[in-house]
Predict the structure of Enoyl reductase (ER) domain-containing protein.
Amino acid sequence: MPSAFSNWASCLCCFSQRRKLQTVHGVSPWTPPDLEAKVPSASSRSVDSTDQGKSDTSSLSLVEEQADEKIAKLLATPDPIPNAVEKAGLERSLIQQNPANSALLVTAKGQYTLTDNFDFPALQNPREVIIQSVAVGLNPIDWKSVDYGFCLPSFPWITGREMAGVVHQVGSEVVGVKVGDLVWTSTYYRDRRAGCFQHFVTVPEHTVLPLPPNLSMEQAATLGVAGLTAAMTLWHWLQVPIPASLSSSTIASTTPPQGSDYLLLWGGATTTGQYLTQLATLAHMKTIVVASAKTETLCRSRGAAHVVVRDGKSDAELVAEIRHASSNGRITRVVDLVGPKTAALCLQAVAVSSSASAGVEHEQEHAEVLFAPLAMMDATDAAQAPAANVRILTVEMKQFVLKQECAVYARKLNELVGRGVLKPPEVEVLEGGLELVEEGLRRVKMGERGGRKLVVRL
């Protein structure tokens, strides 16, 4: 019986023979060179005229030949790595001309419509990149924006904020990305072309990162929201420096964490929480994580110094346990990933710990606390005013797209993941394309995924 790899090799050999290949998972077939005459020219498609030189037939054929050569070399190598061959096959099979763009449209508050013939997200800027999506991550913001009607500038709109795929086209001034590259990105809701719940996504060049060699497409689809939010929250807003071995002159902390500094994290089993715990540990911070009993082991495996199990405990008991866990140090950073109630409890824990204990002044009293409420809370949502030493931050992930200098955080995140220092969350893949996005978001809304990330394979 042939092995799984030999089946892969057999399929991939078809590339070198210039046969038409229909990939699994619903990806449109590549159009071979002998059919080029039947394909509309670049000038007749929705492509910016300044980019025509980069999308003409000759340059596309050259990329195809290079992909063929890469596959041939991999197949000729003794005991080749199947994952590497698969990725090379993706590069080859997803190079297309004249593609159709399927999309999951938000047509009204709380309403979706699936179409297989939506506007192709053409380039509008010479520094933009068009990516053909392979995997998209599902996040709470995706269902919340549709259910509650925010972050929807007009109808129809396309949501979805993270994906991994293959570069389909690049603008005339793009230098760091080329057609056929395997990449991931994080997007901004204000541009419908960047909504990830469609087969083709157009984004600025600085938001496009290479796929780490040790990650699958589905794993990379967890980096654009959960991974990047954790990295920017910790390194940018909470002012925790990147580990020394990866330091950059563009990133500095006014108050580097000390050995006794704690990060209080409510929601440590979430995918963002898992990334945050690992990044804090790399920065030599101890993490106090609040989570459920069934995810306690997961949180400890990510590096949590203390896990406060919330099951069956009153609010007062949780606050007291958090304070006890930090009794030999001080809480200097706080992140809430759940909601207004838990954010208020975080504030109480910091306020309580700033009082004297048994007649001895607690070290927390003189520590500035930076609080990042990532679950849509501001100071007015708290049950009490924050203590004088607490500064509530406004975390805006749109800065990654709007400010090119923020790309440094994504590059450092990518480096840590690529080196195996930072582990992505467990991924549950939903096979079946855009049709499964709604069902997946329903599951995200219900919660209790046990620390797993839902990703849809297109």
